[in-house]
Structures are given as C-alpha cells and as structure tokens.
Amino acid sequence: MLCETATMSGAPLISARSLVKRFGSGPEAFTAVNGIDIEVAPGEAFGFLGPNGAGKTSTMRMIGCVSPVSDGELRIFGLDAATEGRKIRARMGVVPQLDQLDNELTVLENLVIYGRYFDLSRKAAAAKARDLLEFVQLTEKSDSKVEPLSGGQKRRVSIARSLINDPDLLLLDEPTTGLDPQARHVLWDRLYQLKELGATQVITTHFMDEAEQLCDRLVVMDGGVIVAEGSPQGLIAEHVRREVLEVRFGYGRNEEQLPRLDGVGARIEVLPDRLLIYDDDGDGALNELHRREVVPESALVRRSSLEDVFLKLTGRTLVE
Fold it and tell me: Which Gene Ontology molecular-function terms are recorded (predicted)?
C-alpha cells in the first residue's frame, strides 16, 4: 500500500534546526514557533502535544509546506521545505482537523477525484480507492453520499483519501476530535496498521491516552518552544512518579491537610478538589496516611499518565 521512503538509511525523514515561525513584522510581530529542533525517523509515529497557542499547528503547517518558514532550516525527505514544497507535498498525505470532504459526492468519488490531483488515471484511482475503503472498513459505503455518514466514518474516509498517493509521510491533525470511544478505537487500529506497514506519522492531539497509544516519541510544546521530548513512558518516568494517590478532604479543605502529609510520597500537588500524591508506591503512600490516622473522604491509587506530565510542564491554567 505504501511506497518505500527514498531517504538514505538512517537519515531522518524530517529535520528541523532552529525553526521559527513569525506572524507580522516590527514591534507587532508575534513569534508562534521560537527556534525548535526536531528529527523524525522513517517509520516513526511522532506526536506534538501542547496547550492552545503552543505552536503545534504552526509547526504542522510548516511541515506540510503550506506555511513558509520564517527562520531556521526545515528539510523533509532530504528536500528543502523553502524551495521544494511541491515535491514534498506530492509525497505526503494530510488528515486535517476538520474534514474537507465534498458532501455532494459519493465516498468513492471523493477518493477518485483526489487521486486525479496526483496524476492517477481514473481507472487506477478507482482501483486504489476501493482497496483503501476496504482497509478502513467502508466498502459498503462506497456509493453513499458523504453528508449522512457518522463522524467516525467521515474520519475514516479522510484517512483513506490521504493515502491515495501512497504517501511516505502522513500528517494527522487531531484525528479523533469529536468521535465517540468506539470510533476512536477503530481509527487507532487503522493507524497502528499503517505504522506496521511502514508509514511515518506526525500527529497532533489533545488526548493524552491517544498520544500514549499511537506515538513512539513526542514533544511537549509551550509558548512556541519544546519543553520536553521523549517516549510517552520515558517522559512519565522522567517528570512524575510511577503512581498517583488522589485523596479528597472536601472542596477547598485540601491545602490545610498539607502539614499532616509532610514526607508522604515524592511530590504533592494541591488542587481545589483534591490532593495528588506522586510516588512509586501509591498503596504504600495510602498506608502511610492510615498509619498517621489521616482519613480522606475518598482515595484512589492509579498509574501516572502522560496527562500528569503534560499538566506539570504546561500548567493547569486555561489558555484561550
């Protein structure tokens, strides 16, 4: 299904050095991406995480060669994004955050017409489209118009369409936003199969569980810079402890318990509705509370997640 990358063995598929994206000029200029370095290997699933305004979308648009680089160097497939964007886009598949399907056409027609943009004959595009619809489990919807499809089905059509040119690189912007859990898991399965076939994927997502499931490696961005980089499990091990004990003493009454919890766990985070006690042994921390006769309204021990890392690095304040 996918063609082999033409990059040299061991060379990164994407390489960014001191990458900058500015909007405007002079004192009114805004720097959305501020000198980041990135390397993505062939066959890797690479993720961008960050709050609103972190610079993820601006970075993805530069990688997609639809937004020019303001400063620094960006090479994709060994080609300069500043001068060879057309060649790069021809080897790339894009799944935008908002589906850009033609509601007046059938599912099959959406794929065939898109294939024509890549100089596929109508016969070749139709054959490829049928194979892709079988891959995303939508063969029975081939002759259906797009408009009545469910959100999950439309996302699968978008993924199928993005593969019509056998791309070496697949860009996915918030691929499961707005989908129900069942549809999300179907998409995860298809993306995992694409990875097994050798597809390189670059993903932005707000779902931490999705990043843990899909990404081999990721960066966390905040304020236009990279604040952390690594595998999901590596970031969890580096920035938080293995487990979290969540205890509640009543809304607004958690901070007053801190003196009684001194020395319990490796780190304690105070929230209005609960306390988070990070430790490699959550049950041991809970036993220590019992030993001290500290009785919360509720207690829960859970595995630390990428969300804990994300919130520690970027904060819990809403960014509009």
Answer: ATP binding; ATP hydrolysis activity
Model pLDDT for residues 130-167, shown as the tens digit of each residue: 999 999 999 999 999 999 999 999 999 999 999 999 99
- Cα–Cα distances (Å) from 207 to 49, 82, 240, 253, 314, in that order, read 9, 31, 18, 30, 15
SS3 call for 75:
strand
What pTM, to 2 d.p., does this model score? 0.87
Burial class (CB in 10 A: 0-12, 13-18, 19+), 238: exposed
- CATH label of the domain that carries residue 84: 3.40.50.300
Q: Distance of alpha carbon 138 from its chain centroid, rounded?
A: 24
User: Looking at the structure, do residues 254 and 141 belong to the same domain, yes or no?
Assistant: no
**Can you give the residue range of the structural domain that contains 277?**
241-303
Task: Check whether residue 177 and residue 292 sit in a common domain.
Answer: no
Question: How many other β-carbons are positioned within 10 Å of the β-carbon of residue 62?
Answer: 25
- Give pLDDT tens digits for 35-74: 999 999 999 999 999 888 899 999 999 999 999 999 999 9
3-state secondary structure (DSSP) of residue 319: coil
Secondary structure element (H or E) that encloses residue 306, with its range? helix 306-314
- Which residues are bridge partners to 201 per DSSP? 45, 170
Task: Confirm whether 9 is domain-assigned.
Answer: no
Q: Give the per-residue pLDDT at 25.
A: 86
Same domain assignment for residues 279 and 132: no
